[in-house]
Amino acid sequence: MLDKKIIQYNPKLTLIAREFRNNPTVTEKILWERLKRKRIMGFDFHRQKPIGNYIVDFYCSRLMLAIEIDGPVHNLEFNMIKDIIRQDRIEQSGIQFLRFENHEIERNLESVINKIKDWIEENHK
Prior knowledge:
Layout: H1 13-22, H2 26-35, E1 46-51, E2 54-60, E3 65-70, H3 77-91, E4 96-101, H4 102-107, H5 109-123
Parallel strand pairs: 3-4
Antiparallel strand pairs: 1-2, 2-3
């Protein structure tokens, strides 16, 4: 078994993350049903996980993988720039990202699941 790297986070984000978990978006609910309880190749994912000064939608510590779901608000230029900066800062901790858009989850969930599995097979040897 691989050792998990401990990722520091801002404790002030704990309550915000809990609020996000209690009020997920539709697409977060859909993907969570497939990620929870180690349903993807036995890996344990958490939702709304604080990392540094940010919160990611889903995170697996064994894989050092964050999964983000981008809704329409992420297409606004200001938010796109914020997302790039945020992802870059998190990646500096060694965490990698997979990003999906809402419509991918809604229209072709199996393709999203297969992309996650493919990433795991390619990156977790």
